[in-house]
Amino acid sequence: MKPTALLSTLLLMVVASPAAASEKTTTAKTATKLDVREWEVPWEHTRPRDPDVAPDGKVWFVGQTGNYVGVLDPEKGSFRRIALPENAMPHNIVAGPDGAMWYAGNGDAHIGRIAPKTEKVTKFPMPDKRAKDPHTLIFADDGTLWFTVQHGNFIGRLDPKSGKVTLLEPSVKASRPYGIVTDGNRPWAVLFGTNRIATVDPKTNRLKEYTLPARDARPRRLALTDDGKVWYVDYARGTLGRLAPDSGKVNEWKTPGGSGSRPYAMTVDDSDRLWFVETGSQPNRLVGFDPKKESFAHVTPIPSGGGTVRHMIYHAPQKAIWFGTDANTIGRATVP
Length: 336
Hints:
By secondary structure, this protein is mainly β.
């Protein structure tokens, strides 16, 4: 496989009209707390983050300020470290369908592939010098790697077979594409510098943006439920939101921590329950939300305090949420 650097493709932007949001208040059930375990990372002050679980059960993560990829064996409690190319400053890592691990080279404008047996790193450089900071990665069902470029202001796609990278630019400058997920083959991303959520038609490469009703909304992470709804956490306003793509209707719920809760990391489990972390409090708090009951539950403090929990994933075989913390730990929360 050879990485190639191709010219970026700028895209016709279609902006959906905002719909009025309805805000709801619910009462959080604080009696039930999740079982949370954390492993202290042996390399201090390296901001371990964005873990993913490989098929063999090992937990891979990146040390953003330590310029490494780490591997945790949860059964043994042991760690090992894989050095990355100079200035990679990895931001995110995901397991690929090819058996490799793929990371975002946030400091050196590339996406890296770590071969499954040799652990050799292959770099896929960005084809536009503005795309300096690949941010968050996600694989679609067809094997396409979608990603965000926050300060470079792109949503990108990488074909692992050809190495071709295509960059799509949102309609607003400094929109800060951030969290990204897929509903199969179509990506959804939040534009953290705006009050917008974007998606891309994978067949046409057409980008569509939905404008949230609140002008000061700043969605940071998102998740999808099986009914096709797009859920997001509004970091600026302390709300959990739901977007219905077909109608553009938006509903919002105040988080248990209120307007200063700064909800950040987010995921969804296999029962369609939403989970996010309130980073405005110390310790950070992991919060669950049941869309069927429209109620919050399982407000659980992070034992280490968390510092800031920035990203997390749900691993269905373990019924567990995995996350990294600025307190230099990798954490696992088992959900009921």
